[in-house]
Amino acid sequence: MKNILHTIILCVLIFPLILGCNQRSKDFPDENYNSLFPNKGKIDTPDVDYTDMTSMPCDPKEDDINYKYPGVDISENVRTYTVTLKYQFSEEQVNTLGGSDNRSQFDLKYIDENKKLVTLRSYSDDEGHKQTIENKKQYETTFKVKSGYPLYLSVYGAGYDIFKIKASIQAKSDDGIVVSPVIKYENSFYTDGFSDDFSYCEKIILP
């Protein structure tokens, strides 16, 4: 009799627990994800506003083989600009036993008024390229371009011993209204021998 009573009591205690475990929580309605996140079928191309003249990175290893003119065609409100490029490097050898000729090897590149990639070098090589930048000499060149021109400056290579380099390029519209930010690169270091490679490349599309 006691066993039957114990069984009844145990069933009374367990039954509500079983009932509670089997009850489902209230179902929420299915979300309509198509209405929340509509698929337009394509990615919209963002509008590029060249009037803010934001600088953009480029490839410092770009050469004549893979070069593609990065400018754009602008047909309205076309301006004429004067571009000024300045650059200089200096090298002082710690040990002159190797000779007095400068041994830094770097390329400085810009895009000229004919849309060509121009490479200036601090060295001559076996492929027939001649040195066009002399140690400690200051350079400045100017030329005219139109709206859509890519103001472009690239420096790539390595310096030797006590080394300094600075280069900058800027454009000013001939009507005096637009002055571009200055794209510039500066580097200096002291090392016994060649430095680690350094590289830099930025461009701005002129409005």
Automatic annotation (TrEMBL):
Query: According to the lineage, what is the superkingdom?
Result: Bacteria
Q: What is this protein called?
A: Lipoprotein
- Protein's organism: Riemerella columbipharyngis
What lineage is on file? Bacteria, Pseudomonadati, Bacteroidota, Flavobacteriia, Flavobacteriales
